[in-house]
Write a structure and sequence with these properties.
With about 140 residues, the protein is α+β, with helices and mostly antiparallel strands. The protein has a single domain (about 1-140), classed as Quinone Oxidoreductase, Chain A, domain 1. Helix content is about 20%, strand content about 25%. The strands form 2 sheets. Strands 4-3-6-5 form a 4-stranded mixed beta sheet, covered by helices on one side. A two-stranded antiparallel ribbon has the order 1-2. The longest helix is centred in the last third of the chain and has 13 residues, at about 90-105. The mean pLDDT is about 85.
Amino acid sequence: MQAYRVTTADGIDAIEQVVMDTPTPASDEILVKMKACSLNYRDMLITMGAYVRNDVRPIVPLSDGAGEVVRVGSEVAIFNLLRIQGIYVGSTAMLEQLVSTMEAHQIHPEIDKSFPFSKAIDAYHWMAQAKHFGKIVIESEG
């Protein structure tokens, strides 16, 4: 499996592309095959060791993505029935109101620039310039 990770707190230039064995999820974990991801400022902070909440090395500097659940730990049976999409930030009624408003006013997420997975480090450099408006997306190439 292809991945990007950091082993030091030396910033974006310390991100390395590596080939790793596909992990096997523990009994309370799931394995997600990423299809696309979106960079957040927190991801850049992780490369600099400035996000101490999860400053464990090596680490994949990524916190926002979408993908397919491909393996499920033995204690996580509920994921066999669900499609995980997004995060929980409010009630179902609030989400329905948000979706309705976005559809009614034709509001769409703003994507500043997309990068293929092979150019993910370029996406971090693009973010570091702080000239973007909208999301910076990294897309799967396979």
